[in-house]
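assembly run, all chains below
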Amino acid sequence: MKSSKPAGTPVSNEKPNTDQDHTARVNRRGFLKGAATGAAALAVTPAAEAQTPSAFAASYTAPSYQQMQRDTGLLTPPTEQRAVVRPGSDLMVQVLKDMGVEFVASNNGSSFEGIQESIANYGNPPNVMPEFITCLHEETSVDMANGYGKAQGRPMAAMLHGTIGIQHASMAIYQAFYSGTPMILIVGRDDGFIQAHTANDMAAMIRSYTKWDAQPTTLEECLVALQEAYRQAVTPPTGPTVVVIDMELQKEEARDMVVPPFRPAVIEGVDVSTARTIAQALLDADNPRLEVGALRTPEGVRAAVELAEMTGACTSTAATRGPMSFPQKHPLCGPGANTAYDYVLGLEANSPNLSLQRVTVTSLTESRDGMGVGFGGLRIEGARQREGQNNNNRPAGTLLEIDAEASIPVIMGEVSRLMTNEKRRQIEDRKARHAAANQEAFMTALRAAVEDKKKGWDLSPVSTARIYAELWPLIMNEDWCLASPSSFSSSHHMGLWQHDKPYSYLGGQGAGGMGYGLGACAGAALAARSRGRIVINVQTDGDLNYTPGALWSAVHHELPMLTVMHNNRAWHQELMFIQYLAGVRGRGTDRGHIGTSLRDPFIDYAKLAEGYGMKSEGPIDDPTQLAAALQRGVETVKNGEPYLIDVLTQPR
Amino acid sequence: MKSAIRISLALGAGLVASAGLAQTMGPVTGDVSEGAQLYYDHGCYQCHGYFGYGRQDLNNTGSPFLINEDVFRSFLRARADVAPLLPSTSMPNYPANSLTDEMVQDIYAYIRSMPSNRPETASVPTLQAILRSGERPYRP
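ok done. output:
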């Protein structure tokens, strides 16, 4: 491996930290209590062993004073004598700081120990921007990055240990790819250690379902690669990017190497001429409309709101189906006073006139699927055919494959330029009519939803509708985010809740895989923690059992996440598949539960959570007990602690 | 056989569709408690809920397929020979070697015994709170 040449002087004012406060966010008393217990156990064990000699006892040597000091965190490493004064990994962490990467989620691994140590010790204060998030499985690390990225519209990072870390993470990467979630995956590579953990082309395993990757050979290249990874992740088609970083680069002496300044991504929108045409059409129309799908970031949502308000256009929203769409209760959101629209602009949504839609991952076939693996979404024609067949997803009007979010400011500029006082008066009148009609439409839909959702209200097990219904009055005055996929629990929030924030609902798994929910919710809760927000996780039991370790991460990092178990004690969709097939084959429709149910024994999720250190209660099967439990849960979460309530539910 | 099934189903649907005869439900001859167990064992609850409220309601829906035992049995049998082979979450078919006529009668009895549970909205504070929330003005 080549070493980099020192050049210039550091840009950053950050100095290697030598006097960090390790007590931050660490309950040292609790830790030492545990250590003391462990020491007591050690003291007892040799005596017991002495009566029954064993190989272990014969070889056992008590830890030295220095070892004990180090293990209990009391030994401060000498700071004057350092083999490497300015390790390359400090500069890598500085790049992450410059880009505003808040978190690096990881299950630790030796191939990135340089970066991990830098996160822990570099900067003042250390372990902030980014903060190291401890995960118990790489799938959780990437799911957390997925949940965070969906909620914020920007990347955090996950760090993976060589070939084995990549393979653990691969399912979550696959889901993030299909969601188009921006994230940076840092993969450690160590040729000098276990050969099974390294590879010549580390990213090849996941290339066909990531957007971009690099395996730099020098420290300078590595810093640039991390910056490019960020830009690529947030530029349409958005998605996961990968930087494979050799151990040598992390550990090499950077001397006075300069951290290159970060250049943000430049994302192309419509040109001024096109924007002027669109603006003119919006202003000439008597009844314009905006069809709004999923924009990229909260800034895009704000811009869409501003455009609607400028033009007096009523809008649709996709906010009940996923993040980054128009606020559902905004006065202009709804069918409006008149549904005979004479010009419709699609913003990441279909329109009979003009649709602005960014490219998606299906555009990556040529560059990313060199091996011809042919995952579903990468076959452009196949994917589009399916979209056409299943979703009738092709717009009837003109489609411009360009980012709507980047286009809106240009369009608004032209709207401002073309606006007249007379037009402004007309728009204000129209807005008032739309607001009244939309409120009426909203209430009509809400009353219908309430009538529908109260079915089986008092029955046990608890109806899934009642979970969502009881939650809403408790959270409607909070800043909340529903981060769990809701389709398996019948998506009752769609009719009962009001989705007014870009992150109100984070949508489905991406690729439909299980094991996503808990990690993604924990990631959304990472985003929520410093923003006064709480995260709601209506958690299916089957999904939780893939990555229950995320419960511990939520406790460890004090994440404001309320988990309400949708505990139906089965993988019900699969149960129905098996039963259907049994019926077709004319046998044993009472045996569909084999391999699809979670009984004998039932799983106690409250105890499971308790084992991970999470406050919890349940199982609750009496619906009259639900509201009080949810109240306790919301209050706990608002105080910065995760909480789990196990609820025995109807199947869906 | 298929013709007979179709006739039965058509009869059931027609009975309800014509002249609002939903009240003329047929007699119940099965055992409710046996039916409850069969309803669970054969997975009816997965779509229809433990008490007939689910993604596909059974509870007091006035479904023509529940008009009487014969129509119900014919409905369960109807798709045994025609259902596509691909797995689906659609209604499974239940041939006689899976559910006997007696078992069908028991399940029918259980379905007919399901208590209605739709409280008055005005009597449930949570539902009232949800409706009130809809009246609130938008707050960005």
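Chain A has a mean pLDDT of 88.

DSSP finds 23 helices and 16 strands in chain A.

not gonna interpret more than that til we talk
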